[in-house]
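Troubleshooting log. The previous run stalled partway through. Resubmitting the same two chains, unchanged.
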Amino acid sequence: MSSTPEITDTAVTGTARVKRGMAEMLKGGVIMDVVTPEQAKIAEDAGAVAVMALERVPADIRAEGGVSRMSDPDMIDGIIAGVSIPVMAKARIGHLVEAQVLQAIGVDYVDESEVLTPADEANHIDKWAFTVPFVCGATNLGEALRRITEGAAMIRSKGEAGTGNVVEATRHMRRIRGDIKRLASLDEAELYAAAKELQAPYELVAEIAKTGKLPVVLFTAGGIATPADAAMMMQLGAEGVFVGSGIFKSGDPAKRAAAIVKATTFYDDPDVIAKVSRGLGEAMVGINVATLPDSERLANRGW
Amino acid sequence: MTSAPTIGVLALQGDVREHVRSLQATGARAVTVRRPAELEAVDALVVPGGESTTIWKLAEAFELLEPLRMRVKSGMPAYGSCAGMIMLADRIEGGVEGQQTLGGIDMVVRRNAFGRQVDSFEASLDFAGRGPMRAVFIRAPWVESVGADVEVLGLAEPGDRIVAVRQGPLLATSFHPELTGDTRVHSYFVEMVREL
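Second attempt completed without errors. Output:
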C-alpha cells in the first residue's frame, strides 16, 4: 500500500506479540487452501478468516507426486490482489530462502509445511529471524514446543493432509491436549525430566504446566472435510481450522465453505451443525489412512 | 448502574477470550454473545478483534446484524477493537463489496490501513490522557475522518493517525489492548457503562 507511513523508531514491527497476536485474530475462524484468485474470492465470500495460497491442494500433491515447492510468486501476488483477508503461503521445511521470498512479496503468514517436500533433514527455519510470522505443524506437544522455540507464532496439528480423513487430525489434537494435561499433573521436580523427554526448554515446559495451554494459538489441519469434522476439532480444543483439499475438491465449494465457517463458530450446537450440513453435495473422496504406507504419510515429515 | 454490569463479547470469531479476561480484570461480569437472546441479556457489548468480513457474514447468517444495530441505535454502550472499530463505523473504505457494519460512530474507517502483517507493529501512545501505553496494531485500520460529535482519544505515532475515538456510549480503538494485559482501555469502557 503506497500510503503506508514510515514506522518511526518508537514503533517496532515483527515482535513476538505482533506475530502471535495476528494468530489470536484468526481464532474461531477457518483458513482455506486456494489455488486461484477465483477460489480465494469464494473463500472470502464464504467467511474465511484467511486463505492459504498454493499451486496444488494436498490431494493433488499426493496424486501427482514429485518434488513439491513454494508457489510461483506471480500466483501468490494474484491471490493477494484478489482478496482483502490475510494471505498465507507455504515454504518447505528448512527452506529459509523460500520463506524470505514469501516475506518479501508480503504474505501475512508463512506455513513451514510438511505438505511440501522438506528441504533440510536436520533443521527447521530459524523463524525468529523473520518479521513475518510462521505457523508450523505438530503431532505432539514436544514437536509443538520445538517449533515454538524456533520462533513459530502459531501451531496447527498436522493431521494427514489431502486424505479427507479426519482420523489423524483427531489423533494429533488429542495427543497435544493430552500431553498438556499430563504436564499440569506433574510436580516441579518431574518437570525437568518432562522437558528432557519433550526435547524442549524447561522454561517453556514449566510455563505450559502452569497455564495449561500453549503460549501460541493452536489450530487443527489435515483431513477436515465436513462441517461436523470442523466442529469436532473445535470440541477437542482446536482454536480454529485449516481446510485444505476438503473444500475445492468437493461438489459445491462455496456452500461447503460457508457451512464449515458456520459450524466452526457454533461447534457446540448440534442443531446448527445439522442445519448447515444439509444439501452440501458430494464431499471429497477420502483415503483410508490405515492403507497409506509410512513413506506417503506427510505427518512423518519434520520432527 | 450500581451492581457490576454484564458486558457481552460478540463471539462469532476473533480474540474473544482476551476481551473476556480483560473485562473480568476490571471487575465486570463478561459473557459471550452469539445469539439474539444472549444479546438481549447484556448491558453493553465488546466487538473483538478478528476479520471484519467474517464477523459481518456470520452476524448476517445468524440473524444478529439487525438486533445488534437496534441495540447500538438505542444507546447500548459498545466498544470495538480493530475489526470491532470497523463494525462500529458509519462508513468504511477498503471493505469488500457490500460489506456492512453496525455503524453508530460518525467516522470513516480505512480497513488494513497500516498495511499487511509485515507492517504490523507495536508503539507507545497516550490514550484519553491516561498516560502512555503500549499499543499493538495488527493489519490495523485507522480513522480517516470523524464527525463533529466524535471525540479523538488517541493518535498513533506513524503519521499521527487517529486510532482511538468515542462518540457518546460508543468507543473504538484500532489497536488491541486485550493483547497486552494493560486494562486501562477496558476500565475506561466499564466506567462509561457505569455512567450511562
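Takeaways: The CA atoms of residues 35 and 54 of chain A lie 5 Å apart. Chain A touches chain B through 46 residues (CB under 8 Å).
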